[in-house]
Specification:
Elements: E1 5-11, H1 25-31, H2 34-40, E2 44-50, H3 67-84, E3 89-94, H4 99-113, E4 118-123, H5 144-148, E5 169-174, H6 179-186, E6 191-194, H7 195-201, H8 204-216, E7 220-226, H9 248-261, E8 264-270, H10 281-293
Parallel strand pairs: 1-2, 1-3, 3-8, 4-5, 4-7, 5-6, 7-8
Helix pairs in contact: 3-4, 8-9, 9-10
Length: about 300
């Protein structure tokens, strides 16, 4: 893989859901050796430290959890994405998945500015296509794809200047989608691949088809990797565990295919809650997957000892 400038942007977002802990994620990924792993692959690594949310009014009581703070994070992350993308490949270190309201919106605005379409690969047990009104939990980490595709209901959030077309989104790993969200998704052109689809057809075939589409369109590719895409038996450090997720082999294959495509332009590593981890093994796995997306091959993987 051609060496790149990898820009690490810490996003200790913990306002997208009520269970705390994801604010520790960026430093856990750093401690697990993300910068070293990327540098060992020949990349230039620039760590810009941790962001803070834009100024915002305090959040009161209501059906939504911390909407003002989440909107402020969206503004800060959107600006950070637009600033980083002209000079390198930003890697957003989460933080809960609400960070993708900003990272994806910013990437889409940049892609629009340079005249290229943005495509989004969403690796997640959940579709995150809710709006603030349709979310029964009021947790805004379930709304990023709703926001970036231009769904209504995001009052107080930065306007989405370049909505991502539905057909430019592929969700893989689905296995927990509620009724209203399922109905909304079925009316879209989003590519949906649940774990039954992956069990029956493998992960390579649908991913290859999506990457081919991105390449033919001359698109940029934003990948959003949620810890709960993975099976909780191998990645326990997440507050939204759903059994039956991707295996280590499936996840590394997906990352290596992304690398082989040469299309990756920005990356989210989200929902890592170190408080729930076991001796750092989830953080280490996320680092290893990021390394696979950026050039590490299967025979180059280090042996890990957790004893």
């Amino acid at each position: 893989m051609t060496p790149q400038t990898c820009i690490l942007i810490g996003a200790p977002v913990d306002s997208g859901k009520r269970r705390p802990g994801c604010l520790m994620g960026p430093d856990a990924l750093r401690t697990a050796g993300l910068a070293r792993a990327l540098a060992d692959l020949g990349h230039v690594v620039e760590d810009r430290g941790n962001l803070a949310p834009a100024p915002h009014a305090p959040d009161g009581e209501g059906p939504l959890y911390q909407p003002n703070r989440t909107a402020a994070w969206t503004k800060a992350l959107g600006d950070a994405a637009k600033e980083a993308l002209p000079t390198g490949l930003p890697i957003f270190l989460g933080g809960d998945h609400a960070l993708s309201l900003g990272s994806v919106a910013g990437a889409a605005a940049h892609a629009n500015r340079v005249g290229r379409p943005l495509f989004v690969l969403w690796l997640d047990a959940h579709s995150d296509y809710h709006t603030p009104q349709s979310s029964a939990s009021g947790n805004l980490h379930g709304t990023p794809l709703g926001y970036v595709t231009g769904r209504d209901g995001f009052q107080g959030f930065p306007p989405v200047t370049a909505p991502v077309p539905q057909e430019n989104i592929c969700i893989m790993g689905l296995r927990s989608v509620d009724g209203p969200e399922r109905e909304a998704l079925q009316a879209t052109r989003i590519r949906l691949h649940d774990m039954r689809d992956i069990d029956e057809n493998g992960i390579a075939r649908p991913l290859s088809a999506f990457l081919d589409t991105v390449a033919k369109a001359g698109g940029m590719l934003h990948v959003s990797l949620d810890v709960d895409f993975l099976d909780p038996s191998i990645a326990p450090a997440v507050g939204t565990t759903v059994p039956g997720g991707a295996t280590v082999r499936e996840a590394h294959l997906a990352m290596e295919m992304i690398c082989d495509s040469g299309l990756l332009s920005s990356l989210d590593l989200v929902e890592l809650n170190p408080f729930l981890d076991e001796r750092g093994r989830t953080a280490q796995l996320m680092v290893d997957l990021a390394a696979s997306a950026l050039g590490r091959r299967v025979f180059d993987r280090p042996t890990r000892a957790f004893a």
